[in-house]
Amino acid sequence: MQTATVRDLLDHMLARTVDSLGAHAGVLVLPEPGTDVLVVDASVGLPPECVAPLCRIRPADEPADLVAEAIHRRQPVWVGSGEELAGRLPPGSAP
After folding, report:
1. Is residue 29 a contact partner of residue 50, using CB atoms and an 8 Å limit?
2. Most buried of 8, 18, 33, 78, CB within 10 angstroms?
3. What are the φ and ψ backbone dihedral angles of 43, each rounded to 5 degrees?
């Protein structure tokens, strides 16, 4: 029997959440303990080059619009299409 790691559980939880919402992709951004930095802890459905600009964010530093909106609203942000996603990611990171 294999024991699941915290990483396995986060990845599974995010994949199930994305699937249950009928979404195609999702990113889980959490605060880094003891700092004002947010880090991507898990992602699903996005290529690494799209996630890379979001990996370490300081909310006070002009974060990507999607992350800033999620922080401000304190809830997930729904993006309706690939075109909308590409338009809301930092320049050069769209798939």
Report:
1. no
2. 18
3. -150, 155
Pairwise CA distance, residues 25 & 84, whole Å? 13
State the Cα–Cα distance between residues 21 and 33, nearest whole angstrom: 29
For residue 41, which amino acid is it?
D
Task: Look up tokens 């599974």; give the residue.
Answer: 12
Instruction: Identify the CA nearest to 29 among candidates 61, 6, 56, 47.
Output: 56
Q: For the chain, 95 residues long, give each residue's pLDDT as a single digit of tens.
A: 678 898 888 889 999 999 998 888 888 888 889 987 888 888 899 888 777 777 777 766 555 567 667 777 777 777 777 777 777 766 655 44
pLDDT at 12: 92
| SS3 category, 49 | helix
Q: Which residue has the tokens 């990171």?
A: 93
CA–CA gap between residue 64 and residue 56 (Å, rounded): 11
Give phi and psi for 44, each to the nearest 5: -145, 140
